[in-house]
From TrEMBL:
The modification 4-aspartylphosphate is found at D67. Signal peptide: none annotated. This is Response regulator. Residues 6-134 form the Response regulatory domain. It comes from Uliginosibacterium silvisoli. InterPro entries: CheY-like_superfamily, Sig_transdc_resp-reg_receiver, TCS_response_regulator. Coiled coil: none annotated.
Length: 150
């Protein structure tokens, strides 16, 4: 069940991270939030490498909230690697970014993003967006149970 699995937030901006965590708290989303602050850390978490060596990689997050403009490995490359690996190919990935570049939107969907959401600048809009994300991806969406396939 998605509602008991963690959420992977991939965000390098401390202010956006804090706002996202606050919004999840305000909407009483009980899932553990795992924060990766760059693309390398996100991939290490998902594939049990680096600082996350030994982590049970079968315990996938319910959803990945992925910023695009990340240090070390950008979000589009993270998405590319998620989709290229059979263990994570079906993992829901929501791009949550400030980028309004048409090329980023097109490439994210071409690489298999499930959704592309521009971060609202207004905090109240942001709260609403995060609440809707939580409701949809954690409660309404019926995920593929890719964990049982491996």
């Amino acid at each position: 069940m998605a509602s008991d699995r963690p959420i992977l937030l991939v965000e390098d901006n401390p202010d956006d991270e804090a706002l996202t965590l606050r919004a999840f708290g305000k909407h009483r989303i009980p899932n553990q939030i795992v924060v990766a602050r760059d693309g390398v850390e996100a991939l290490d978490y998902l594939f049990g490498t680096g600082q996350h060596a030994g982590r049970d990689v079968a315990d996938l997050p319910a959803v990945v909230l992925l910023d695009l403009k990340l240090p070390r490995i950008d979000g589009l490359e993270v998405l590319r690697r998620i989709r290229a690996d059979a263990r994570t190919a079906l993992l829901p990935v929501v791009v949550l970014t400030t980028s309004r570049e048409t090329q980023d939107i097109h490439e994210a969907y071409s690489l298999g993003a499930n959704s592309y959401i521009r971060k609202p600048v207004d905090f109240e809009q942001f709260l609403l967006a995060v609440g809707q994300l939580g409701t949809y991806w954690l409660h309404l969406n019926e995920p593929s149970d890719s964990r049982s396939a491996y």
